[in-house]
Write a structure and sequence with these properties.
This protein has no helices and eleven strands. With 124 residues, the protein is mainly β. The strands form two sheets. Strands 2, 4, 5, 6, 9, 10 and 11 form a seven-stranded mixed sheet that branches. A four-stranded antiparallel sheet has the order 1-3-8-7, with no helix packed on it.
Amino acid sequence: QVHLMESGGGSVQAGGSLRLSCSTSGVIMSIASMAWFRQAPGQGRDWVASVSASGVTYYADSVKGRFTASKDDYKKTLYLQMNTLKSEDTATYYCARCRVFGQRSGSCNNTDGWGQGTQVTVSS
């Protein structure tokens, strides 16, 4: 059974940085594609970034150049380094395993393992 737990959120000022972590159990990270999503208040859940099983990364245009996703297969952990944060990055951030993954676009579907998320608040 897949269990994911996000951590590392907090409140920062615009321009600041945060590093999110997603600890996993029940996932063989070396063969798993993973993704980060976020949900702002009153809005739907949006894809943020993906990491393929081989470590190739993909990003939404809104975070490209500012966020860096990575994974440590040995530690069974997924990361999201967020720099130059903006107020529009305020959301609850979630990680998920992608059971169906698009190698060309980094699309992540048929997800599982959703955790409770970690809140990121950016004040301007």
